[in-house]
Design a protein that fits this description.
Length: 337
């Protein structure tokens, strides 16, 4: 079968086409034929060697996608041939609290990912999709979407009237914008691009701040919120923005740290504000299958639509990666089979 592998991981040009043997489903396993694969920021970090230790050059990448079950192994009862399914990228985290062993099966990192004509996954980790969630919406859920759901709903207990601050207009931020509006919350979002902020307003953002125009964007947020600040902050900016997030937080604010975006330092100029604001800071890693089911059920009931920037053919996957890496787009980049 046709597939792609990550190669030597020194630039966005290391992705290369290859062929692999047809997978065989063992006990408890299912074979999926992908329909669409969605790119996320860590896909680029893997190719450039900035996402943790270097991986096996033969690793098939791809963290999230949607596809059809085409074969199942012995003892599989969770899914059937013909089911359209998704899977959270931590395949071993099915329910319960986070534990360190979830990293032992990370799709596209420790195990081959979605960028192949067929992918082998644990059947118990798969989720059947409702008919009213189209492929392009389903393909973008497993990483950015599930992470946003975990951050706002499972971790921060979002409620109507909360103000959610999203840093930037990447996949997690845009997913968080939709989840927040679904729950009756208000949303503030930052970007260096007025064009991207305009799109964010069209998607429902209540406050938009260009951080090039306002380098002290926490002060601008305070100004626009009558000095109240944000109840929940989806911190995707990395170490260098954490001090700003603390400054932008409301009393009893919750800051959820997401991803491994590199930074030079962690400036927290007003350390005492952890106490005077009673701030909670928590790091999260994606989410469990049980969380994913809750998220999918909410989407099915709320008719949410994904923002898609561009879709590439499977054979053009390297071009899709370069487009994602340029970071000039807003919305998801898809690869179709």
């Amino acid at each position: 079968m046709k597939a792609f592998q990550i190669g030597e991981q020194h630039s966005t040009n290391t992705l290369s086409a290859t062929t692999r043997p047809e997978p065989i489903a063992g006990p408890g396993e299912a074979i999926i034929a992908p329909r669409l694969v969605s790119l996320i920021s860590r896909d680029i970090q893997i190719l450039t060697g900035t996402y943790g230790p270097l991986q096996d050059p033969k690793r098939v990448p791809g963290t999230e996608g949607v596809g059809d079950v085409i074969a199942v192994g012995e003892g599989v009862t969770e899914v059937s041939v013909g089911d359209r399914v998704v899977c959270g990228h931590f395949a071993n985290w099915r329910e319960g609290p986070f534990s360190a062993n979830i990293f032992s099966h990370d799709i596209g990192i420790t195990h081959d990912g979605w960028l192949a004509e067929k992918i082998l996954l644990p059947a118990a980790s798969l989720i059947r999709l409702p008919d009213n969630i189209p492929d392009q919406d389903a393909a973008v859920l497993a990483s950015a979407g599930l992470t946003a759901w975990n951050a706002l709903v499972e971790t921060s207990n979002i409620k109507a009237g909360d103000l959610v601050l999203c840093l930037g207009t990447g996949g997690v931020s845009l997913a968080a914008l939709k989840v927040a509006k679904m729950h009756g919350a208000r949303v503030a979002i930052t970007s260096s691009s007025d064009e991207k902020l305009s799109v964010a307003r069209e998607l429902g953002a209540d406050i938009t701040i260009n951080y090039k125009q306002y380098p002290d964007w926490p002060a601008e947020l305070m100004k626009q919120t009558n000095n109240q600040g944000a109840d929940i902050i989806v911190e995707t900016g990395g170490q260098d923005t954490l001090g700003h997030s603390v400054a932008a937080a409301a009393v009893n604010g919750r800051i959820v740290i997401i991803g491994v975006t590199p930074g030079q330092n962690s400036p927290i100029p007003n350390y005492i504000s952890f106490i005077t604001k009673n701030i909670t800071i928590k790091g999260i890693a994606n989410g469990s299958r049980a969380m994913f089911v809750n998220y999918i059920n909410a989407l099915a009931a709320n008719d949410s639509t994904a923002l898609i920037s561009k879709t590439f053919d499977f054979d053009d996957a390297p071009e899709a990666y370069r487009f994602q890496a340029a970071a000039k787009h807003i919305g998801k980049v898809l690869i179709k089979f």
